[in-house]
Design brief:
The complex is a heterodimer of chains A (241) and B (117).
Chain A lengths: L1 H26 L10 H37 L2 H16 L4 E12 L1 H5 L9 H13 L4 E4 L2 E3 L5 E4 L2 E4 L2 E2 L5 E6 L3 H12 L2 H8 L2 E5 L3 E6 L21
Antiparallel strand pairs in A: 1-7, 1-8, 1-9, 2-3, 2-7, 4-5, 5-6
Chain B lengths: L2 H16 L5 H26 L5 H25 L4 H33 L1
The chains are: A alpha+beta (241), B mainly alpha (117).
Chain lengths: 241, 117
């Protein structure tokens, strides 16, 4: 009996000790007490405010410097060169282009298919003629079946397949997207294409051009490969020109 | 006899090692629970010295007092009345009474021992 009595007492004292220790830890006051009076607090406040002001001043001067650098940078030759480079890249076809334009679908004439005529690959001559005509009427950017046409693009017949820069055009219909400067030019291009001689020549080869109404926004993808320039030399500097 | 003291020391040791952080809003409850526990403990010691110690009374009193005190504090927080002060007062008074009785018992024992010598 005595053993058991002490056991329960021990358990309870253990719990009490635990609780007291936890409470003691929680109540423990901070090591250094704040014993400043009002005037000292006020002085400290003034000091902190001065620090705050000086920090603000520093921030302002840094921002001014930043702005100065920014304007210097934007007016620098480097920036102008970069902008020119970007413009040239857009012109060369290295960026995706979006703008007003029309879409031309080259389709096979179905009636002939029904009669059992063989489908011949579209001739390079026709494609070249179409592209020339489009360029003549003010097209700025052209893509054929998702391939961007650039200055050095070629349309060739390789092993009986018509290819644009190496991508064959054997699945009909072929989608030709044209982006122009503005809506006015787009309408003009549309009207010209309606009566163009290219359409007739396509029809002789059993193809039909379906020309869409001018659209406000047409996206033409960027040229996918890198442009390699051979046979070109750096111009010598310092000799005018 | 030394077992309870050992338990207390172990409890203190464990508590200081445990590093338990109690949120400020609950520290009231713990403090009042500690007070209730101390009250029960001293009551137990007094009963032991007076030879009227009953283990059931002691153990049930310990837990019941703690729960009662904590619920009083809880009720006080929700009613906007500092009800836990009532518990503090009651336990404080009883603590003093118990300690006074223990002191007298020890004094009496001491003086009888002295007379015997």
């Amino acid at each position: 009996m005595g053993q058991k009595r002490y056991l329960s007492m021990t358990v309870i004292t253990l719990i009490i000790g635990f609780m007291v220790a936890v409470q003691y830890q929680n109540v423990k006051e901070p090591v250094v007490r704040d014993t400043r009076d009002t005037s000292q607090l006020r002085e400290d406040l003034v000091k902190e405010k001065e620090l705050y002001l000086s920090l603000i001043r520093e921030i302002r001067s840094n921002e001014e410097k930043l702005e100065k650098y920014e304007t210097e940078r934007s007016q620098s030759k480097e920036q102008i060169l970069k902008e020119t480079l970007n413009e040239l890249k857009v012109e060369a076809g290295l960026f995706e282009v979006e703008g007003p334009g029309i879409v031309i679908n080259i389709e096979h004439v179905n009636e002939d298919l029904l009669l059992g005529k063989e489908v011949s690959p579209i001739s390079t001559y026709l494609i070249n003629k179409l592209v020339n005509e489009l360029n003549q009427y003010g097209a700025d950017h052209i893509s054929i079946a998702g391939q961007r046409l650039i200055n050095s693009s070629v349309v060739r017949n390789i092993n009986g397949q018509t290819k644009v820069d190496g991508y064959s055009l054997d699945t009909l219909p072929i989608e030709v997207k044209i982006v122009v400067d503005n809506m006015k030019v787009a309408e003009k291009l549309y009207n010209r294409m309606q009566v163009s001689s290219a359409a007739e020549e396509f029809f002789i080869d059993n193809y039909r051009l379906r020309i869409s109404e001018p659209k406000l926004s047409i996206t033409i993808p960027a040229y996918q490969e890198s442009i390699r320039i051979r046979h070109m030399d750096l111009a010598e500097t310092g000799k005018g020109g | 006899m030394w077992l309870p003291v050992l338990g207390l020391l172990i409890g203190l040791f464990l508590g200081s090692l445990a590093d338990i952080n109690i949120p400020v809003e609950y520290s009231n409850y713990l403090s009042i629970a500690v007070l209730a526990a101390l009250d029960t403990l001293f009551g137990g010691i007094r009963a032991h010295l007076q030879n009227i110690y009953d283990e059931k009374v002691f153990v049930s009193g310990f837990f019941f007092n703690i729960i009662l005190a904590a619920s009083l504090a809880f009720l006080g927080v929700h009613l906007g009345v500092d009800l836990y002060l009532a518990a503090v007062f009651a336990f404080g008074v009883r603590l003093f009474q118990n300690i006074a009785v223990i002191r007298r018992i020890f004094l009496a024992k001491w003086s009888t021992n002295k007379e015997k010598m």
